[in-house]
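note to self — DONT lose this again. spent like an hour looking for the file last time. sequence + predicted structure for the chain T wanted, 215 res
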Amino acid sequence: MFAIIAEFAEATERLNGIRPAVSIFGSARTPPEHPYYQLTEEIARQLSDAGFTVISGGGPGLMEAANKGAYHGRSLSVGLNIQLPHEQQSNAYQDVSQTFRHFFARKVMFVKFASAYVVMPGGYGTLDELMEALTLVQTRMIRRMPIILVHSAYWSGLMDWIRGTLVSEKMIDPADIDLIQVVDRPEEVVKAIFDHYEKRGFEPSAREREAHLNL
C-alpha cells in the first residue's frame, strides 16, 4: 500500500508542471518503417511545436514514435513506463521518464495531466486506454476533452459497431458517439484540440479539479 502511495506521489510531483499535455496511445509492436509510426511521429511533432507536452507509454512502437516526434519538437516528451515481463522497454526519446509497477497508477497519470487523448492504431492496451477515457468523460468523472482516433480505415469497424450495436440496443445514448472524433491527418489532430478549447481555455474549472481528486 505504501509503495502505491509513493508511486502516485512521486509521479504527481514530477509531472505537475507539464500542462497543457496530450496523451498519445498506440501499438508497442509497430516498427519504425511502418506508416503508422511515421504518422504518429509527425502528429507528436506538430503537437509539440504547438506548445503541448506529449505523453506516451514510454515503450517501443508507436509509443516511441510519439516520444520521438515530441523530443525533436519545441515541448517536452514524457514517457510513463511500465514494468512488464515482455514488450515494454523504455525508448530513448524522453525528456521526463517515470516508471510504474502498477497499471492503475500509470493510467491515472495519463488522464490527470491530459488535455486530449490521441489514439493511434493499437491492440488491447490501446483499446483499454480508449475505453477508460470514454467512461470517465461519459460519467463526468473528468472534464470533457477531445478523444481523437487517428486513421479512419483502422477504426471504421469499431465506429460501425458503436453506432449499429451499442446505440441501437440502447447501451449508450446517441449523443455519446460525439465523445469521439475520427481524423486522418496530423493537422486535423491539432485543429480538433484547439477548436475544443477555443472558448473555455486549457485550465480546469474548480469543479473539474475536485473531480480529478476522486480519480
